[in-house]
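$ ./design --mode recover --in tokens.txt
reading tokens...
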């Protein structure tokens, strides 16, 4: 028996497929555990640097009277809120990947934020370029505080697989999320 007998085409094809499957599983496990460490770092950052509840209190003091929209903010709070929205745009997909994925399967679902008026969805957007959409929602419905608090509590709801929706009584709309 010669070693070249084992190097037939079917054996090479089967060996190549097995190697591709092993590499794919290794990459999925690596991505999953990377997301796990990201979730830990993000929760620490959320408590210290990007705390939405503290942001709401600091922006209340620095805005025009009787206003609750992004465009009515003064200079420094405006940049703080924009930084917060950009951070949430980056953080929420990572939370979704960890919560909905597993070590051997890559998650292909997307996170959508929607604004609805009862049963009808008025606006629905994904997390790509969401900072501008968040600003548009806060300006249109005068709900800056509510959106910031909603985004502060949203990662915990995603991790617990709970539905989370907030009702804005001034505009009679609600803001929620979907993972599809």
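writing sequence...
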């Amino acid at each position: 028996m010669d070693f070249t007998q084992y190097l037939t085409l079917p054996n090479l094809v089967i060996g190549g497929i097995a190697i591709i499957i092993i590499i794919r599983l290794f990459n999925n496990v690596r991505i999953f555990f990377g997301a796990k460490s990201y979730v830990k770092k993000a929760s620490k950052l959320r408590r210290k640097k990007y705390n939405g509840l503290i942001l709401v209190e600091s922006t209340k003091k620095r805005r025009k009277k009787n206003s609750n929209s992004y465009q009515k903010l003064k200079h420094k709070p405006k940049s703080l809120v924009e930084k917060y929205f950009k951070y949430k745009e980056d953080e929420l997909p990572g939370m979704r990947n960890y919560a909905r994925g597993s070590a051997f399967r890559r998650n292909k679902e997307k996170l959508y934020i929607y604004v609805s008026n009862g049963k009808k969805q008025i606006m629905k957007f994904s997390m790509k370029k969401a900072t501008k959409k968040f600003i548009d929602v806060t300006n249109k419905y005068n709900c800056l505080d509510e959106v910031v608090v909603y985004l502060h509590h949203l990662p915990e709801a995603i991790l617990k697989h709970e539905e989370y929706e907030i009702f804005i009584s001034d505009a009679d709309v609600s803001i929620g999320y979907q993972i599809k």
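exit 0
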